[in-house]
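> forwarded from #structure-qc
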């Protein structure tokens, strides 16, 4: 009897995992279609063809096109903030190294591929999704703004930067990073992902020249 129960439990567990895997595959296919077609030509049929499934299966998992797109935006947001959280794990663990890793993760090659960038561009320009995204991620954004300020405070204690205030520097870094994102997704001239990363590093060099170079922490 116990064996039968365990067998059914294993089947149910596999079914849940299969469902999650299928949803991840559909989200990945949606990102690809958004990158290739943009929102104007986006259809569930295109996603289904890309994923090799029927459109009815997409409806089964997400109910509608709008809910699918909302889930994709949420998924991409989780990946982005996951990279920021991961940047705070590892050695060295001092404020200088942690701030470098945090800012460098903003445009990480491990997450921000050209395909993802094109999908973000579609969300923010064709769908006006930036407001929804900012509302959805408000708590995470607040957390990393506070973390940036705390790390700046530690660096200012160690360095000789008269006139610098941690909250001002942190807010300027945050605002400038947002501006780089806008240039990537809205800008009239093309800005590459490596160029965006270089600009982000430049913020640290500008505010803390005794602690950072474009190649990394100086201590």
């Amino acid at each position: 009897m116990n064996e039968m129960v365990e067998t059914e439990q294993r089947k149910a567990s596999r079914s849940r995992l299969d469902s999650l895997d299928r949803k991840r595959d559909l989200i990945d296919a949606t990102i690809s279609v958004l990158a290739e077609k943009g929102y104007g030509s986006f259809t569930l049929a295109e996603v289904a063809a890309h994923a090799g499934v029927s459109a009815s299966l997409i409806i089964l998992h997400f109910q509608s096109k709008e809910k699918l797109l909302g889930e994709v935006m949420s998924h991409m947001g989780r990946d982005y903030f996951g990279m920021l959280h991961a940047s705070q794990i590892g050695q060295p663990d001092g404020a200088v190294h942690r701030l470098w890793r945090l800012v460098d993760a903003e445009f990480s090659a491990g997450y921000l591929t050209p395909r993802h960038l094109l999908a973000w561009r579609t969300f923010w320009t064709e769908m006006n999704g930036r407001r929804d995204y900012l509302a959805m991620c408000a708590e995470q954004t607040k957390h990393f703004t506070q973390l940036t300020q705390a790390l700046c405070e530690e660096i200012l204690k160690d360095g000789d930067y008269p006139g610098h205030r941690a909250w001002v520097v942190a807010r300027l870094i945050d605002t400038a990073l947002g501006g780089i994102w806008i240039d990537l997704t809205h800008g009239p001239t093309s800005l590459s992902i490596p160029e965006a990363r270089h600009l982000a590093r430049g913020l640290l060099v500008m505010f803390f020249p005794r602690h950072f170079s474009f190649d990394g922490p100086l201590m």
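QC bot note: Strands lie at 212-213, 216-217. Confidence is low (pLDDT under 50) at residues 4-17.
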